[in-house]
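Project channel, design review

CF: Before we commit to the Megasphaera hexanoica constructs, I'd like one complete example in the thread so the newer folks can see what an input/output pair looks like. Taking Phosphate-specific transport system accessory protein PhoU.
RD: sounds good, go ahead.
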Amino acid sequence: MLEIYEKSVTELRNEMIELGIKVEQAVDNAWKALEHKDIELANRIYNGDDEIDAMVKDCMKKDLTISMMQGPVAADYRALMATLKILSDLERIADHCADISHYVIHLEKTHHNVPLPAGLREMYGVMSSMVSDVIDFYKEKGSAGRAGMMRDKDDIVDMAFNSIMAEISKEITAHPENSRDYIAIVLVVKYIERMADHANNIAEWLIYRDTNELRI
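CF: and here is what came back for Phosphate-specific transport system accessory protein PhoU:
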């Protein structure tokens, strides 16, 4: 029985790592599509979201099966519960990649060539590093100390969000003819900010997994 349990936990962990890699790739590609106005890549990201959703559902099913059928000890049960929460945040990050891709297609079709706001690349880079970090932290127990640093990065993203929103507001006033494009960019920036929030949530659940400290 113990052998079956350990095998199930290992399979779930491996599938979670595979899912994390897929999400990380979607985050990287979403920026490439946005920066280069690459509609073909944006469509691939948008259509590929179903595959990630299916992987999330499969991992959730395995997680719940282990929780209900295998009788895990307290520490393992905590890890399984954290995994369930992490899956939800990974799914939302992937969904926001698809959302950004949708607006890449919209922005390219208008042919207005509205530039991306100054500082957006840096904001996206910090968020992307958060996603990469928490996926790495998931792979190893005892990463709670490093996971705790995610709040600082999230604060950086929040400050960038406020600065970019102020910049976009000025651009809408100066160029009202492009207001629909700027609204699309506002939504993209909001999705980036939310992706950072989800990465921070994952870090908090990893801290809970490793230390039994719940800060969410």
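RD: helpful, thanks. The chain has one domain: 2-211.
CF: Residues 2-211 form a domain with the Methane Monooxygenase Hydroxylase; Chain G, domain 1 fold (CATH 1.20.58.220).
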